[in-house]
Amino acid sequence: MKTPPLLLFAALLFWGWLSDLLLVGAVMGALLEITRLTTFRWELDDTDFNRIWSFCVVLNLVLIGYVFTNNDAGGINGMFHGKTLATAANSGVLTAIRFLRWLPMTTFPFIFAQAFNERPSVPLTAVSLVLRWRRRHGDRAFAGRYLDISHSYFFVCLFSAGVHTNNGGQIYFWGLFVLLAWALWFVRSPRFGIIPWLLALSAMLAIGFGEMAGLNRAQGIIQNFNAQLISYFISQRTDPLQSMTSMGRIGLLKLSAKIVIRLEPRQPGDAPAYLREASYRNYATQKMTWFAGGGTKDFEPLTVEQDDTTWNLLPGKKAASRVNIACYLNGWSRELAAPEGVLPLPGGCARLENVPPYMILKANQNGAVLAAGRGLLMFDAAFGRGASLDSPPDVDTTNHYDLSVPTNEIPALQQVISEMQIPADANELERRRRIEQFFANHFTYSIWQGTDKLATPSTTPLTKFLLTSRSGHCEYFASATVLLLRQLHIPARYAVGYSVHEPRGSGFVVRERDAHAWCLAWNRTTKTWEDFDTTPGSWIKVEGARTAGEEWLADLKSWITFQFAKFRWRQANLQQYIFWSLIPVLVVLLYFILFRRRGKLRRDVKNKNLPGAPWPGLDSEFYQLEKKLAARGAPRQPGEPMADWLERALAEPLLNDLRSPVRELLRLHNAHRFDPSGLSAEKRQQLKLEVTACLEKISTADTAKKLR
Amino acid sequence: MTLLYQFIYWNYRVTSGLWHWSRRRFTRAGLCAVVALLATGAVGADVENTVSFQSFALLLAMLLLAVGFSFRFRGKFSAHRLLPRIGTAGLPLPYRVRIKNLSPNVQAGLTLLENLADPRPSFADWLGFQLAEGKRVRPFRFSQTRSRNPFRRANLSEAEIPPLLPNGEVEALMQIFPLRRGILHFAGVTVARPDAFNLFRSFIKVSAPQNVLILPRRYALPPLALPGAARFQQGGVALATNVGSSEEFVALRDYRHGDPLRHIHWRSWAKTGKPIVKEYEDEFFVRHALVLDTFDQEPNSEVLEEAVSVAASFACTILTQESLLDLLFVGNQSYCFTAGRGLAHADQMLEILASVKNCADKKFETLEHLVLNHASSVSGCICVLQCWDDARKSLVEKLKLLGVPLLVLIVVARGEGISGAGGMFTDSEGILRILEVGKIEEGLAKL
User: Fold this and answer.
1) CA dihedral B32, B33, B36, B37 (to 10 degrees)
2) CB A187 to CB B439 under 8 A?
3) What is the ipTM of this complex?
């Protein structure tokens, strides 16, 4: 190897240390360095290197397949790295990371073969299947060109050592600097002395350090910007802390027909009407935004059952209905380095079952459940009427969140309430019925937002909606209803989620345009929160009509995305089948790679020992003719061409007639012996018959000669 | 479409130029560092899961420093090549270069590089090659090999320059590996100095224009029994000079129109009063025609190059066998060069073959006309053809009718085999041979 002594050992040790494979790195390094102490070498040829490289490639593929399909972070994965959410969840990134991290290990057989080979280099053709294939077919490109890969392997080690989670440390930087300086020392130009070289090295360190700090900062800025950019363009995700409404904006509300949730009720009729993601308590009229009333710390981790797949949200509650839900988690948790999102759950959800392992679930007081771990989640939700995760209204506390109404909305609300003519002694149920009737009779659904809904210094969009326009989308209805209920002393909350109404097969699909807002009203009798939706039922028709033409295309796209997501996030069993189906293929491949040649040699040896091994053309009758002519006193000289000898052997006047047919027989004999396609049955017969005829003629000539 | 081709052509020019530049500017360690920089740059974008951005930063600093070093190289040199007159394609050509240090400083740790004239083709040549290649090789067919470096003239190597004292002169041993025949133009030499890390080199270019003629690549031929036998040759001894049974006086006879004046026997004329000439024994020797098919639309055709190589192989072999050889081909005009038996030597024939170019503006009939005119004086004819179409078949048929013994070699493109010859064979006499590019030597060995 051309690398300086112990450099590869140090590089492998460094890699092993940073990759939690210190022992493996040390052993590999020692095995490579030992070549400097021993004279033992193999004589590997190009074919051997081809096989070793194939083995490395197969090894890499197996590892990629294994890491990608591994669901429970066990096996080799678990052997080398601890089980964490990050290692268990994010298969795409982790597959690439692990593949790169283990590169020195998976390519080790190749460098090891070079180190212990008589000629310490590898053939260039070994690494390309195309070149190998062409070479087998006579192409001589790159033939005889060999390369010492020890320096490349050194870089691979350094590269792979850097593939580990960034915990803000600089160990990698300093280790890399030392190893690079070590390597550079041995290739330095003799033109420069030690001092200029050291100065250059110091400058390199200073610039590199500055760049690293700069890159760190730049990356942070770009990533933040990137996150904002993505959240702007890509599908919106529900923020459990706040919900900014589109009230007061101008233009057409645009929501696509993309399928975002799929439901499969366990029993027909079990499907919920709404899937709620979050609910909010405080309305900031200036920002037209609803707030949950708590911070991120408001979320409390939920605990999982022993089986690692069941999450009991409301212990003790008996849920009559069950529905299987498949939804995407579109957010990203920086803390967990995994996808994150709010789960769309039916009201009164008591338990989540068959949730994939290694998920983290949290819930807040408003009943929002935040999940992290996978981009696609498929689970069963058990739900029923009655208790829910939502905290009871805080009517008795000082905050009165669930009864608070912004002061600037009160005049409009009072005006509307007086218009409703609700009797003073009406109970809560009657009040709710009056509100529902009022909206149904005087309001229409519209997704077009004109300038008449723009906020002015004196009037809010909600006031305009209630008093003048009386037309709007679900956010207007839900916000107005919540505030009206509160004004009528009924605790209420603003809820967002999806409406479930489109059957598909045995289940339902929920599109992005089915996103909906409604309100939760507190029932003092049952002490539960109840869904209360005043948006006119025509909204579904209006939304559906607008995107009907593009629906099939969106469905196809959504289906492909869903299938891919199922595969990617290991929600389909297909991955496991793929992995296990790979095993027999790999076994066969390995057999061919490792043992085929030996088998071939064995076969050859076996064949050599066999008496009368089939040699094409050995059964030719022409040999009898040759023998006969040689016996007549004209033996063939060593090296004498057969054609010349025949001319000589048939020079006798008595055999002159045989010259031409024997020439033809020689041609047939040669074809029988050397032509890969051999002789046809007809020609073969011709050879046999004509040789017999010639032999007879020679015998006749001999007899005639004797008689004379 | 032309715009697209132009775009691809300029893309080719830029990338090949960039690759040439980086191969010369960066040392092997430097190239490794560049590849590592790109890899860490790609992976380092994910700063959460990897810390490769740290290695990116360090490698970038290292390379920036190395490039920065290149701006401080001052020196003055003169160079003179001691170059042989000819070389051969496919064989290394060693030569020496004298370098003189014209600066007052000692120069050490330098490397010498050769500067060839820019081999990149014009757009027309490049397009011609691409179209021909496109016909031959279908896209995404790994089995069909594309021509590698079709325009590269030679592989160059570098040489270490021994330390140079002020006004000192040293010699560096250089070697090039010519890939194609023809004239190889040297533009100058470059004196390179690496940086402290030995990653990037700064250059001082010294102009030293020179040319060397590269002869065609030649293949070993088996002992040949060429078709045809010795026959009377007009011109006799004049073509044979001191070889064979020259100047064997036979008799005196009356002058016939056309007899050379130097054969007149003046004393007999004086005695008899009529012109009498001396009659010498007739000269009989083998005279072969080597017909080279140069009709190819593409100037850089691999098939033409191999056809020339095959012709050169025959030219060398036949000329060592005491016979005459007529080389017949068509370039700007029809050419016939005769060599052997004192007329010309093998190297002269090879020099002619080194300069043969494709003929794209004439028809094959021009060559047919030339060959048939010479058919009467040759003992046998070796035709090196590039395909087997009607025109070529017609030439072979006509030569057969004239009774000229023939050996027809058809050179076909790589991987095309017999099908690439473009026609059906009716080779009952065994005079046709297919030579596939890449397997020429094997093909010739079977002759």
Assistant:
1) -150
2) no
3) 0.73
